[in-house]
Design brief:
With 270 residues, the chain is an alpha/beta fold. It has a single domain, classed as 4-Layer Sandwich (Metallo-beta-lactamase, Chain A), CATH 3.60.15. 22% of the residues lie in helices and 25% in strands. The protein is built from nine helices and 13 strands. The strands form two sheets. The chain has a seven-stranded mixed sheet with strand order 6-5-4-3-2-1-13. It has a six-stranded mixed sheet with strand order 7-8-9-10-11-12. Helix 6 links the parallel strand 9 and strand 10. The protein is globular, with a radius of gyration of 18 Å. The mean pLDDT is 95. The structure holds zinc ion (ZN). The site of zinc ion has 6 residues, from helix 1.
Amino acid sequence: MRLQVLGTAAGGGVPQWNCACPGCSGARAHPARVRRHASLAVRLASGCYVVNATPDITDQIESCPWLRPGPGPRESPLRGVILTDAELDHTIGLLRLREADTLEIHATPAVRQALRPFADILAPYVQLAWHDADALPISDKRPRYATEPGPSGWVSALRITDGDSTLIYAPAMGAWPDTEALEQADCVIVDGTFWDDEEPRRTGISSRTATEMGHLPIEATMERLSRLDTRCLYTHLNNTNPLVDPAAEQHKVLAELGVEVAADGMVIDL
Ligand SMILES: [Zn+2]
């Protein structure tokens, strides 16, 4: 399996259009610090998929050589989208894929139910083929726009297996997933939204802690990750996260633990 990291930012991106915090201002001043919304291209024996459909999806497809169309004039290698949850920063890009003839969407029943309005909008344009995702349940935090309670499985860690290789991808991790599943994976890419639990309150972006927002902070997960005998990376960085500054001392803390921070464009072969 080949992966290309298409983006590593939480909702809003870095920079976020209406934000002049140090992280966003730093990205405006230094283009190398720009991070698109968290997403992953995955090439499997069965075809190519994008994990989560972000507002940046069409630029992200262009950034990945093996997702570009051809050789026919309307031939795309992209078979579909695998969803971890129904949050808008992970799903709004579905609307940008309306030019497809057919699109597979792999999701839990709860995510599929939440996305019914999207499916209704897309139905006259593209044929959607829904499949169940191989998902480890993480939390039942449903998106604000989803008013119906629905079945369980709002937020998941995806398990993507191809031959002997397994990836776990969990950009929103409100609770620690099944450790055994993490240990069996060849690569684990997880929630690095916030560095510490108070960060959202301290920076004034929320009255809730990171955990209350559905994101275990890095401080609560980095040592557990370092104990896994597998390659571990953080993604989904919020623009308030000190790691968006390459000079931040927090990078040294992670390097000492052997835990990586994913970068846009990174390619991983498993
Ligand atoms: Zn900002």
